[in-house]
Amino acid sequence: MKIATWNVNGINARIDLIVHWLESRKPDVVALQELKSEEQFLPLAPITALGYNVWARGQKSWNGVAILAREKAEVLQRGLKGQEEAGARLITVKLQDFTYTSVYCPNGKDIDHLDFAMKLKWFDSLTGYWRELTRQHENSLIGGDFNITPSPRDTWRGTEGNGKIFHTVEERERLNQFVGTNLHDLYRELNPGSDDFSWWDYRGGSFEKNQGLRIDMIYGTASMRARTKKVEIDREYRNKINELTPSDHVPVIAELVD
């Protein structure tokens, strides 16, 4: 079974690329982020034509998350309770014997911006939500854009990034608290020597210079970690394919034993 996550940076702008990727990679379950569309305007027909069901939490022009799956699922949660003002950033579904959550964590903008404090509070709420979810569902995965580099090796800046947005002690503490709820960073654990990234700025030739960040992750509980045999960052889809403009993020794909 292939489980993936991808911040598409606008589903309407990227729908042809998404279809190309779905046809090429054939994932079974996909978490999407940054849809930038209300649910009634999502371009679902090309996706459902490929055999996927879609569950979404949309928002006009900003944010938005979805899960695609070949099988039927039950929606357990749409949105993070108490954090509605932060936008449409979370959806959880129950599949066969596990749950999958798509999450688009706040950016924070800058350490002196009001959104930075909001980001930290949002992560506190996410950690609380996750503890409750996994009390009921031991087999759980969460994929998404976390907008935090877990460590200096996950950023092209290395330790020189320390203290900057996405690299602060406060952000990493919140991420560590979240991961400390019995979660495993599936990519890092299966690729301990890798320095690959999942996001590159559109500006300044960042992709060509490999000046990126690893901020898109799939985390799993211990039981899901045991079922994971391979995780890769799909760097190819940061290139222009068939003249289609890529997202600034690329998919992360985990292969699980059924």
Molecular shape: globular
* Uncertain residue ranges: none
For the termini, the CA-CA separation is 6 Å
What would you call the quaternary organization? single chain
* Secondary-structure class: alpha+beta
Rg result: 17 Å
User: Within the largest sheet, what's the order of strands?
Assistant: 3-4-2-1-14-13
> What percent of residues adopt helix (DSSP H or I)?
25-40%
How many extended strands?
14
Mean pLDDT: 97
How would you describe the overall organization of this protein?
There is one protein chain. By secondary structure, the protein is an alpha+beta fold. 26% of the residues lie in helices and 26% in strands. The chain has seven helices and 14 strands. Strands 3-4-2-1-14-13 form a six-stranded mixed sheet. It has a six-stranded mixed sheet with strand order 5-6-7-8-12-9. Strands 10-11 form a two-stranded antiparallel ribbon. β6 and β7 form a beta hairpin. It starts with a strand and ends with a strand. The relative contact order is 0.16.
Structural topology:
Blueprint: E1 2-7, H1 11-25, E2 29-33, H2 45-48, E3 53-57, E4 65-69, E5 74-78, E6 90-94, E7 99-104, H3 114-136, E8 140-145, H4 169-179, E9 183-185, H5 186-190, E10 199-200, H6 206-209, E11 212-213, E12 216-221, H7 222-227, E13 228-233, E14 252-256
Helix pairs in contact: 3-4
Key terms:
single chain, 14 strands, 258 residues, alpha+beta, six-stranded mixed beta sheet, globular
